[in-house]
Design goal:
By secondary structure, the protein is of the alpha+beta class. Helices cover about 30% and strands about 35% of the residues. The chain has one domain: Translation Initiation Factor IF3. A four-stranded mixed beta sheet has the order 1-2-4-3, with helices on one face. The longest helix is centred in the first third of the chain and has 12 residues.
């Protein structure tokens, strides 16, 4: 699984980085984005809510989220 560390980065940078990486991936592959801004979580959740890609969001510690996307 590919992992992208986006600590300290605010929208739209993490979303753009995720989109760029997803373009390179094949169906069934997954990527994890680690973020520390709630606005990023909301943006990615909104952007991929109608997508065929599977998305899982976990707040692993207070204020730190791991967003896992599996490409459809």
């Amino acid at each position: 699984m590919e992992k992208i560390n986006c600590f300290g980065e605010i929208c739209p940078v993490p979303l753009v980085r995720l989109q760029q990486q997803l373009k390179k991936m094949e169906s069934g592959q997954s990527i994890m984005l680690v973020v520390d801004h709630s606005c990023v979580v909301e943006s990615i959740d909104d952007y991929y809510s109608d997508s065929a890609n599977s998305i899982t969001i976990d707040e692993v510690i207070n204020g730190v989220w791991e967003i896992t996307v599996v490409k459809a």
